């Protein structure tokens, strides 16, 4: 029985070794085809990373065809994208045409993409570091779902990152490690392709072993795969200890040079350095040059048996870091060269590789070429029986019901931030299903962004109960924050990258885990920039969440220039996959929140960003609800202009009182003056340019909303635009119908002050509006 098992294991190793070679070939050939065979029209280099792929084929073969469990999800380092494509090609999930169109329009993407690729991609990657940390947050989300009874513990998968070693230089990795430790994450694996090369160079020797310390401190198990089986066998032979010591002390760069130079160079150097030591010469002489080259590059990350053993040994749920030593460009003539990141085999070199693998010319795309009929059929059968071949597709659970209206907070003067908190609090107190699916989070700004009420009602999430010590000691506090498994707020430390990555993971709960969550995250508006790439990453992954940036703008007054956001309206407008709204009044907040909860669940919806303020302003009384439809389209007339009016003021957000004051002062001189409340510069602009594009392509669609709004004005009317942010967010409106614009807004850093001083200084007060209007008419 024991022998039979061993045989089966040996057979499996042989099959996975064959797959490793196939993946190295197919990924190399895919890149080669795109660069050297496919016709080029623009003279641009197509690119691709053969060396980065070859570095990881063994790791990927062992993971996907041995260790993978049905519910595991894998994030693949960006530059190994072609290996993932090749795996799915061998499984029959990817077409030849897609591979041939690698990096071309509509073809396989350069880096794995959830939204653009035709193969299943669990996590998008591209911006190094983010695709790694996301797995830790997804394991936290999985724990949340298990704790809330939406998933069985037995169905929990491992969230796995296959990462490049240079990704360990990204700060967001360490932010995530700290947060992961606080939340006691589990079921998370990171496998480092430790080739000690980044894009520019070989990495610092000084970091050797430091990673173990860092990860172990944060509760991770570290498994190092330094040497493969061949090397370990050589170490056990006479002279082997000297060889092992030599390897241990050889600097990264020198190891890389020798790897590139090959067997004869290894021999010369080893004889020079340790040839005088007992038995070493005899040991080295037992290998020919090719054999010695293969021995010295037989690192753990290229040894299928070692990889399988390592993966098998981590069979509990403890987070685990595998440091798999590899050679960048392993098995290719690029191996070890410091410039190999973007280096590519030339046609002669790829021919040579093809021949060495026994692949006949013309058979390059055959998934199982070069193996002989019998072996090819067995390997195909092995692949077809793999866990990966039977993996379920991602699910799309039905949307969660959103009530037709959310109650509007009452009060004659209100701020949009407080209104947001009230709407959430009302939901938290309700028995709406929607409320049960909301998960809130904030990077240490829960109280100051008005999430506290929701948290008091619904509790903090922790896998294990954490008592509220202050409450037990009967010390009065507005925050009743007991933590328990049913809690619905995930508390984060101050790290905006973590915040956006958690929102991303929460926002992917439906496709990943089959349960919809409605993530609501709050952050100080200026610090959106701190996590901007992670926000972009979330949107690119098509994760769905409600982001609330608050407080915002100069309107923060005494908080000063370090906390006053200026360019976030432009971020809101420029970020694909994120619809930006900036309400002025509480009823707008309730309207947009309701809309967002629905929109972020729609297949063609997106995430939503609300830019809010702590400034309390008098509310408007509404005669009806007709404004709502226009407000959702991006703007409505707060003061309707007379037909053919010569002027209007268009504004966004909490500066409404200044605008209305200017209106009162101007309306006698400019009869018919209108006031346009632009609730979303983003939606308004997007729809306008989409309608334009529709007309250019012969599809005469409806007139855009901004055109409809402006058609109430005279053709050459003048408009003063005003926003507490970059004036460019609104000044484009002049281009819609060729109207004159007086753009008000902030284009300098803010500073401390009270609102009258700040608004006067930065030209956002009523006088500034009046001056701007006068200028418009003077220069006419
Ligand atoms: C945030 C970010 N900065 C820069 C790059 C450009 N870049 C691509 S790969 C790379 C280095 C990759 O090295 P490593 O992670 O070790 O991968 P490998 O050696 O396996 O190719 C860099 C700097 C990027 N993709 N993302
Ligand atoms: Mg590297």
Describe the protein in words.
The chain is elongated. The model has no long low-confidence stretch (mean pLDDT 95). The protein starts with a helix and ends with a helix. The chain contains 34 helices and 20 strands. Strand 11 (518-523), helix 24 (532-540) and strand 12 (546-549) form a beta-alpha-beta unit. Helix 1 (2-37) packs antiparallel against helix 16, helix 22 (496-507) runs parallel beside helix 24 (532-540) and helix 25 (568-574) runs parallel beside helix 29 (681-696). With 780 residues, the protein is α/β, with parallel strands linked by helices. The strands form 5 sheets. The protein has a 6-stranded parallel β-sheet with strand order 10-7-11-12-14-13, sandwiched between helices. The protein has a 5-stranded parallel β-sheet with strand order 1-2-3-5-4, with helices on both faces. Bound molecules: thiamine diphosphate (TPP) and magnesium ion. Magnesium ion binds at residues 164-166, 195, 197-198, 328.
Taking the alpha carbons of the first and last residues, their distance comes to 95 Å
Describe the sheet with the most strands. 6 strands, parallel
Count all strands and give the number: 20
Helix-residue proportion: 40-55%
List the uncertain runs: none
Structural class: alpha/beta
Quaternary organization: single chain
Provide the β-strand percentage band: 5-15%
List cofactors, ions and other ligands. thiamine diphosphate, magnesium ion
Q: What count of helical segments does DSSP give?
A: 34
Q: Residue-averaged pLDDT, rounded?
A: 95
* Major sheet strand order: 10-7-11-12-14-13
Radius of gyration: 31 Å
**Which overall shape is indicated by the principal axes computed on the Cα atoms?**
elongated
């Amino acid at each position: 029985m024991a022998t039979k098992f061993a045989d089966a294991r040996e057979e499996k190793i042989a099959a996975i070794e064959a797959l490793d070679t196939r993946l190295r070939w197919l990924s190399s050939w895919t890149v080669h085809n795109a660069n050297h065979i496919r016709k080029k029209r623009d003279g641009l280099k197509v690119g691709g990373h053969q060396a980065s792929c070859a570095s990881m084929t063994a790791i990927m073969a062992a993971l996907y065809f041995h260790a993978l469990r049905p519910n595991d999800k894998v994030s693949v380092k960006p530059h190994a994208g072609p290996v993932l494509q090749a795996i799915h090609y061998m499984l029959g999930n990817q077409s030849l045409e897609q591979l041939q169109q690698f990096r071309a329009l509509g073809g396989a993407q350069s880096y794995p993409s959830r939204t653009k690729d035709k193969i299943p991609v669990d996590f998008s990657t591209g911006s190094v570091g983010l695709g790694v940390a996301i797995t830790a947050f997804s394991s936290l989300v999985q724990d949340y779902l298990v704790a809330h009874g939406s998933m069985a513990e037995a169905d929990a998968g491992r969230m796995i990152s296959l990462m490049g070693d240079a990704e360990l230089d990204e700060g967001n990795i360490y932010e995530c490690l700290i947060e992961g430790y606080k939340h006691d994450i589990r079921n998370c694996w990171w496998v480092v392709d430790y080739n000690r090369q980044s894009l520019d160079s070989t990495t610092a020797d000084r970091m050797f072993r430091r990673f173990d310390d860092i990860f172990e401190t944060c509760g991770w198990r570290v498994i190092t795969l330094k040497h493969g089986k061949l090397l370990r066998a050589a170490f056990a032979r006479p002279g082997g200890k000297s060889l092992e010591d030599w390897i241990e002390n050889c600097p990264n760069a020198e190891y890389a040079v020798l790897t590139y130079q090959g067997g004869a160079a290894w021999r010369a150097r080893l004889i020079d350095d340790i040839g005088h030591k007992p038995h070493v010469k005899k040991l080295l002489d037992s290998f020919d040059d090719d054999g010695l080259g293969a021995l010295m590059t037989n690192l753990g990350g290229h040894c299928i048996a070692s990889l399988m053993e390592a993966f098998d040994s981590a069979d509990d749920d403890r987070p685990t870091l595998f440091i798999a030593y590899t050679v960048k460009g392993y098995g290719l003539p690029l191996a070890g060269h410091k410039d190999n990141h973007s280096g590519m085999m030339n046609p002669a070199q790829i021919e040579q590789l093809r021949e060495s693998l026994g692949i006949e010319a013309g058979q390059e795309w055959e998934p199982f070429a070069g193996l002989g009929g019998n072996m090819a059929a067995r390997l195909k059968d092995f692949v077809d029986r793999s866990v990966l071949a039977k993996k379920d597709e991602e699910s799309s659970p039905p949307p969660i019901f959103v009530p037709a209206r959310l109650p509007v907070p009452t009060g004659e003067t209100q701020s949009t931030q407080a209104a947001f908190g009230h709407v959430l609090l009302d939901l938290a107190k309700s028995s709406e299903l929607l409320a049960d699916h909301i998960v809130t989070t904030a990077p240490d700004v829960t109280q100051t962004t008005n999430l506290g009420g929701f948290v008091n009602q619904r509790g903090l999430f922790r896998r294990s109960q954490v008592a509220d010590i202050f409450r037990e000691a009967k010390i009065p506090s507005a925050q009743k924050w007991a933590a328990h498994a049913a809690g619905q707020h995930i508390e984060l430390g101050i790290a905006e990258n973590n915040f956006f990555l958690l929102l991303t993971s929460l926002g992917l709960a439906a496709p990943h885990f089959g349960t919809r969550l409605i993530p609501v995250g709050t952050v100080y508006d200026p610090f959106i920039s701190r996590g901007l790439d992670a926000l972009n990453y979330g949107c690119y992954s098509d994760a769905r969440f409600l982001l609330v940036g608050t407080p915002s703008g100069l309107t923060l007054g005494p908080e000063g220039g370090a906390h006053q956001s200026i360019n976030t309206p432009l971020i809101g407008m420029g970020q694909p996959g994120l619809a930006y709204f900036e309400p002025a009044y509480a009823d707008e907040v309730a309207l947009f929140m309701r809309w967002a909860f629905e929109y972020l669940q729609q297949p063609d919806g997106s995430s939503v960003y609300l830019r809010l303020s702590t400034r309390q302003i008098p509310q408007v009384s509404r005669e009806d609800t007709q404004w709502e439809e226009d407000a959702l389209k991006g703007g409505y007339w707060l003061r309707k202009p007379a037909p053919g009016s010569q002027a209007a003021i268009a504004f966004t957000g909490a500066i409404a009182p200044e605008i209305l004051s200017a209106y009162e002062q101007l309306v006698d001189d400019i009869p018919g003056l209108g006031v346009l409340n632009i609730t979303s510069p983003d939606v308004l602009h997007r729809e306008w340019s989409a309608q334009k594009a529709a007309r250019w392509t012969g599809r005469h669609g409806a007139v855009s909303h901004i055109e409809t709004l402006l058609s109430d004005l005279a053709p050459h009317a003048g408009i003063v635009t005003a926003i507490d942010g970059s004036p460019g967010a609104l000044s484009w409106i002049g281009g819609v119908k060729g109207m004159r614009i007086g753009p008000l807004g902030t284009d300098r850093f803010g500073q401390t002050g009270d609102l009258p001083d700040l608004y006067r200084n930065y030209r956002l007060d009523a006088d500034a509006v009046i001056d701007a209007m006068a200028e418009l008419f003077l220069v006419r």
